[in-house]
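User: Hi! I have a protein structure encoded as tokens and I'd like to know what sequence might fold into it. I'm fairly new to this, so please keep things simple.
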């Protein structure tokens, strides 16, 4: 690979002139610039983006910090972010905090030491102090999926409350009244909002929520869906429909239903939330409240680059959720209809 010195010799100019052309700094006559660019092309010289970025005190790297890399929602989000950044000449350092505040703290310290140009983060939600550590170092931040209202940074969010409401209302319109709801740990702000939406829809129909049919808990979402559904089946009045507040939980629910020999959706309707890539391919295909996951990643990357290049003020992008009805839900059979409250 050719060096800057070889380009200078080929063009019969100084190394300083080559540097000014590459970095677009200082005056270079049109004739000399043409000679330098011809030499670069003839020698197949590729300027070092890292060297240029160091001169500008940039690293062309963006930290991407998420709670669970093995979760399809977050892995899809990371894929969209990385692809969008790479297309613009940036590289992503992807870190998974595993919903652990201390691990999140350690990764933030590392990203600061690496002098990343910015951090796109889905916070664990345990503490605001980790976010403040980034702010104290003047690192641009884009917050995705989970909100911390007290932090003035750009955010990419979806309307989780509306999603919970729309999903529950759909099941109610199908005649279901005993609706099981399974979610993740309660510290997750999106989960709080989804449950608020569920309760709003039930209230609209004059139905009181049954505490035994509203369960939140472990991060092991597949197991959560599977084990909770098995417990639902043991109840005197088991649910005729289950609203799993993530698609991974819904897959666990479907597995438990299949093990119990139930016909889906004839014996049990199942709805998820997120619309992860596999949701439309499992059998039966999963009715779900879809988040625009890929668009969320693209938007986060776009906002980050604008913050770096233009220093724009903080803004919040609110993206819509959409109900995708597929094969896993159906109208309640007449023999299952009752007037019992949830």
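Assistant: Happy to help. Inverse folding works backwards from shape to sequence: for each of the 342 positions I chose a residue that suits the local structure. Here it is:
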């Amino acid at each position: 690979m050719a060096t800057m010195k070889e380009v200078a010799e080929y063009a019969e100019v100084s190394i300083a002139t080559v540097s000014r052309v590459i970095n677009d700094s200082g005056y270079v006559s049109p004739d000399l610039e043409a000679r330098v660019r011809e030499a670069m092309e003839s020698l197949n010289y590729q300027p070092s983006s890292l060297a240029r970025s160091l001169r500008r005190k940039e690293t062309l790297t963006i930290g991407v910090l998420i709670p669970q890399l093995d979760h399809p929602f977050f892995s899809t989000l990371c894929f969209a972010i990385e692809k969008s950044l790479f297309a613009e000449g940036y590289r992503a350092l992807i870190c998974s905090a595993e919903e652990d505040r201390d691990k999140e703290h350690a990764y933030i310290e590392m990203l600061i030491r690496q002098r990343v140009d910015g951090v796109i983060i889905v916070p664990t939600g345990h503490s605001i102090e980790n976010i403040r550590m980034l702010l104290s170092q003047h690192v641009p931040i884009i917050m995705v999926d989970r909100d911390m209202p007290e932090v003035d940074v750009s955010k990419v969010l979806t309307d989780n409350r509306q999603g919970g409401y729309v999903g529950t209302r759909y099941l109610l319109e199908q005649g279901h009244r005993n609706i099981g709801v399974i979610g993740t740990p309660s510290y997750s702000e999106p989960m709080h909002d989804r449950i608020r939406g569920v309760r709003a829809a039930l209230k609209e129909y004059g139905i009181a929520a049954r505490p035994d049919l509203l369960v939140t808990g472990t991060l092991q979402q597949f197991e959560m869906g599977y084990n909770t559904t098995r417990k639902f089946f043991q109840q005197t009045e088991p649910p005729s429909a289950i609203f799993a507040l993530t698609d991974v939980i819904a897959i666990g629910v479907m597995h438990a239903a299949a093990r119990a020999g139930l016909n889906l959706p004839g014996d049990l309707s199942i709805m998820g939330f997120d619309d992860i890539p596999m949701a439309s391919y499992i059998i039966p295909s999963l009715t779900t409240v879809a988040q625009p996951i890929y668009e969320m990643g693209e938007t986060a990357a776009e906002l980050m680059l604008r913050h770096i290049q233009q220093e724009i003020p903080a803004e919040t992008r609110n993206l819509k959720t959409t109900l995708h009805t597929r094969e896993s839900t159906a109208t309640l059979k007449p023999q299952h209809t009752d007037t019992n409250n949830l």
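A useful reference point when you look it over: The domain at 61-158+293-320 is CATH 3.40.50.2300 (Rossmann fold). Feel free to ask if any position seems puzzling.
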